[in-house]
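Backbones bend. We report:
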Amino acid sequence: PDLTYAAENAVKAVVNIEAVQEVAVRENWDPFLEFFGVPQGSRRGDARTQERRAGGSGVIISEDGYIVTNNHVVDEATKLRVTLNDGRTFDARIIGKDPATDVALIKIDAEKLPTIPFGNSDSLRLGEWVLAIGSPFDLRSTITAGIVSAKARTLGVIPNEFRIESFIQTDAAVNPGNSGGALVNVHGELVGINTVIKSSTGSYIGYSFAVPETIVKKVVTDLKEFGVVQRALLGITFRPVDQDFVDEMGKELGIDEVGGVYVASVVDGGAASEAGIRKGDVIESIDGVKITDGSALQEQIGRRRPNDQVNLSVKRDGKMKQFEVTLRNVTGKTELLTRENVDVVEVLGGKFVDAPDKLCRQLEIRGGVQVASVKPNGFLARARVKSGFVITHVNDRAVYSVADLRRLADKIVSVDGIYPDGRAASYVAVE
């Protein structure tokens, strides 16, 4: 096929992104140098700030400067610099990020920019030609071609409790620096955002993966409107009904066909529970779209917002049943949430781990959430909270684990906790 039209038009709207992170580097005290009178910092080592630079790609989706990229490209950046295809450079700011899909939206102050129109990733067919455009190894405006190898791939690479993975797999060459770049069809339409490669070397060996346009478009729309993604939840845990499942549990459960997802549990008061879905049901389709596995289910729900209604076709005791389900938000309600309410972890601005049992015993606390690192511009950074701090309460509510933290849906007013050396501390939001 002739790919020149798609390549020549789409490449104009793909940008290079330089992300700058400020990291603290502690210099070690050297007694040998001190003996010879070489000036040094304190014996504990002085911390200094050092800039770390990383590169990625992005796609201009509006003439006034909105650019979609990957969350992992911009996540901990203190400064962003965007270089257009024509060589012009702009500072950029983050509009919103969604770790669950690895999609982010940034903005530059510019007008009349070239754009790539959204296509329809649902209409992609296996074997269809696509182009990957980005800046691998800082080689700007690089175009490679390949075919769609598979759809709705799950890799388990997004480190988020609510991750939504339903990647488009292609054999277009994608390398470090391509992240956030465009996957376009032969018409020059955006059908995905290149995100990850599957490789033992860190470079391309034949497999690359993109977030589909259907997810990207929904996330971007939410980020522009609310600054955060309106995550819809069905309120179940599930297992894909694959051959392993049928071989292992099919006879016991009366399931002898592959396909759909088995409802392993139902959250009390959740969307599925309220609609009448039960443990043991097999969900076979959503609004007429066949559900073949877990990633297909995640993608269909991930496209929607709280309070959206979906029709589930469910097999129960060998018979098909239909259920109208009203999707809920993370708090189990149907209303849309603001940025301050929907993602406490993002607003706090940090990376978190469950406080180790040994530390909890040492501090004589039941549990808590330890700050592994502090991201710029969040609540923790503004309050000058240091890494290692153990959060025990948020807004006077006890938190014993990262899962507890994620379940909170209140605007942050106060954070209480204790440092590993036993110093208790309280931090209050200042408007």
User: Anything to note?
Assistant: DSSP finds twelve helices and 24 strands in the chain.
